[in-house]
Design a protein that fits this description.
The complex is a heterodimer.
Chain A (H helix, E strand, L loop, with lengths): L5 E12 L2 E12 L3 E5 L6 H8 L7 E6 L2 E2 L4 H7 E4 L11 H11 L4 H14 L15 H12 L6 E5 L7 H16 L3 E6 L2 H7 L2 E6 L2 E6 L1 H8 L2 E7 L2 H11 L3 E5 L4 E6 L2 H14 L4 E7 L3 H20 L1
Parallel strand pairs in A: 3-8, 3-9, 6-7, 7-8
Antiparallel strand pairs in A: 1-2, 1-4, 4-5, 9-10, 11-13, 11-14, 12-13
Helix pairs in contact in A: 3-4, 3-5, 8-11
Chain B lengths: L11 H22 L1 H26 L9 H31 L1 H6 L6 H28 L8 H28 L3 H17 L12 H9 L1 H14 L6 H26 L4
Helix pairs in contact in B: 1-5, 2-3, 2-5, 3-5, 3-6, 3-7, 3-9, 5-6, 6-9, 6-10, 9-10
The chains are: A alpha/beta, B mainly alpha.
The structure holds adenosine-5'-triphosphate and magnesium ion.
The site of magnesium ion (MG) has 5 residues of chain A, from helix 1.
Chain lengths: ~325, ~270
């Protein structure tokens, strides 16, 4: 079969656990050498999707192909081209870091010599040389995650699934993990990453698919998603309550939010340069003095909240 | 990347064998590094043997055939019982692999998945062999005597090995099906305990009530115990040898593919 431009293709994927419909028709396409981030809150169906794509889980409807191989009909062919780093670290606790790597390499059908050489290389790359001779049971959470990722890279698979690779890591380890992932991307690996962190998707991914309740609710590049939620916001902080009242008077309906404690008002602006100037002029004219001001660009968090917020509201109402 | 990667180019069945060897090595390493469990391998059989001989010996000696001491009678039974309970280790190992998510890793590899179970079963064979050896030595120290010839010893080893394999494969099924390691523990207990006690392992079956006797005389553990006892003591073996062989091989033929099928299914729906 000729290889398509899309390394990962998922069409109308549906999966239910009993009566619990977990995936309600997911569509995904990942181009060769790019990263897709699957972004969603707890229970969205991220892990379920990754497990199906990595041949661990069956599904009810739809079609999934990896490098042109159907995951249902040709699972073994799929397994040869994928590496999986699951949500919980899947390393052998009683074996040492080095033993884990060599064993998994052998199970990928690497020759003994290749497996050993590659293991040393990865230990070096993942800063695990010192701990290589200790059982994985004695590793810290961060080390275990690194070993877990190293294990899935042992045979240099062209497609990698990363299920929440940085959850539970401290900021430093997180950035170290990002660096490793960026190196993988530079090497041309096709990656599907799941995350609950918007900055992570923003930092790493070429495209983002937001899922919630087993449905795709938005997709695009980080910039596209941000522009959906739209406008920049200007936050004006006044010296005291009096100042705030005066400022609100001047700005009128432009004010979308005020905070009495902080003496601040927020307005939406369309054109940052012109609108800020106008606001300042108006305030100066009315002799209102500012303590500070700041322009806020929309973050992916805003995207996320505005997209998943509706469903959240519906849920809490149901619970009542 | 600096390292040039080379992949094995063996035929598929050789790769499957290689997977099994890799997994046997893994499970054996587990057994060796689980120091506390390894101690149990040595001390539990000694404890059972000495306690049973001391507690039941006096009371049961009269009901045994003339000239047979209880320690000689007990040896075959206690070996089979220890091996049967030893299979719990296989069940626990399989179950804890499944709980820990490492099986997900194995499943995502192009390996032969049955090798995961083979690894646990075969390494358990070695561990049980060690237990049996410890028991026989202890037995000899407290009065056990055998008339077995080298050829009979070969049969004894083969029989114990077959029983161990069959039971460990059975146990692996419990390991695959149970939802937790705790469940494995009580499940194996309520299956193995009655099977070993309602048998000829510790007492002759003749004095049991009629229903119990009918069960005890026909269930597989009794066949193995009787065959083993005959070989150890040099008494006539009758059909027990062949019947045991049939039970052992029959169990393997049915259980191995079933366990493999279950293992592949588990989690995949
Ligand atoms: N084995 C299972 N049996 C029944 N329901 C399940 C099973 N596994 C997952 N689910 C349900 O499927 C839904 C999606 O779960 P999934 O693990 O895919 O979410 P997720 O997006 O990975 O969440 P998280 O961010 O918490 O990891 C949840 O409602 C969960 O309860
Ligand atoms: Mg998850």
């Amino acid at each position: 079969m000729a290889k398509t431009d899309y390394v990962i293709e998922v069409k109308n994927l549906k999966k239910a656990y009993g009566s619990n419909q977990v995936l309600e028709g997911i569509n995904l396409k990942v181009e060769r050498g790019t990263m897709l981030a699957l972004l969603g809150p707890n229970g969205a169906g991220k892990t379920t999707t990754v497990r199906i794509l990595s041949t661990l889980l069956g599904f009810d409807e739809g079609m999934v192909t990896i490098e042109g191989h159907d995951v249902k009909k040709d699972a073994d062919a799929v397994r040869k081209v994928i590496g999986l780093t699951g949500q919980s670290a899947a390393v052998d606790e009683l074996l040492t870091g080095r033993e884990n790597l060599v064993m998994m390499g052998r199970l990928y059908r690497l020759t003994k010599r290749s497996a050993q050489a590659r293991a040393e290389e990865l230990l070096e790359q993942f800063d695990l040389v010192k701990a290589a001779g200790r059982p994985a049971r004695t590793y810290s959470g961060g080390m275990r995650r690194r070993l877990d990722l190293a294990v899935s890279l042992i045979a240099v698979p062209p497609v990698i699934f990363l299920d929440e690779p940085t959850t539970g890591l401290d900021p430093r380890s997180r950035i170290a993990m990002w660096d490793i992932i960026k190196q993988l991307m530079e090497a041309g690996t096709t990656i599907l990453l799941t995350t609950q962190y918007l900055d992570e998707a923003d930092q790493l991914a070429d495209r983002i698919v937001v899922i919630d309740g087993g449905k795709v609710i938005a997709e695009g590049t980080a910039a596209e998603l941000k522009s959906k939620v739209g406008k920049d916001r200007l936050e004006l902080t006044l010296k005291d309550g009096k100042g705030l009242i005066a400022a609100v008077k001047v700005l009128g309906k432009q004010v979308v939010d005020t905070d009495d404690k902080e003496h601040s008002a927020t307005i939406i602006i369309n054109d940052t340069n012109k609108d800020v100037q106008k606001v300042l002029e108006a305030l100066t004219k009315a002799k209102v003095t500012l303590a500070s001001m700041a322009v806020h660009k929309p973050t992916l968090d805003d995207v996320f909240l505005s997209l998943t917020g509706k469903q959240k509201k519906a849920q809490t109402e149901e619970e009542k | 990347m600096a390292v040039e990667l080379e992949f094995e180019r063996k035929p598929k069945f050789l790769l499957d064998v290689q997977d099994s060897l890799i997994m046997i090595r893994r499970s054996t390493t587990h057994i060796i590094r689980h120091t506390d469990q390894l101690l149990g391998t040595f001390f539990q059989p000694i404890m059972f043997l000495v306690l049973f001989a001391a507690v039941f010996g006096g009371a049961l000696e009269q009901s045994l055939p003339k000239g047979v001491s209880y320690i000689n009678f007990l040896m075959a039974g206690i070996i089979i019982q220890t091996v049967a309970f030893g299979s719990t280790t296989t069940a626990i190992a399989v179950s804890s692999d499944l709980q820990k998510g490492i099986v997900d890793r194995f499943r995502s590899l192009p390996m032969n998945n049955l090798a995961v179970l083979t690894g646990h079963v075969v390494s358990d064979l070695a561990r049980n062999g060690l237990s049996t050896l410890v028991m026989i030595i202890t037995g000899l120290a407290i009065g056990f005597r055998t008339s077995a010839s080298p050829w009979e010893w070969l049969q004894i080893i083969g029989l114990i090995g077959l029983f161990t394999l069959a039971f460990s494969w059975l146990a692996s099924i419990i390991g695959v099906m149970a939802k937790s390691v705790e469940a494995v523990q009580w499940l194996t207990f309520i299956i193995i305990f009655p099977l070993t006690f309602a048998s000829s392992a510790f007492t002759p079956t003749d004095n049991m009530g009629s229903v119990l006797r009918a069960f005890a005389q026909h269930q597989p553990i009794t066949q193995f115990v009787n065959a083993l006892r005959a070989l150890l003591l040099g008494t006539p073996i009758g059909n027990y040898g062949w019947v045991s062989l049939a039970w052992g091989i029959g169990t393997l033929v049915v259980i191995v593919p079933f366990a493999s099928w279950l293992f592949r299914r588990r989690g995949a729906n």
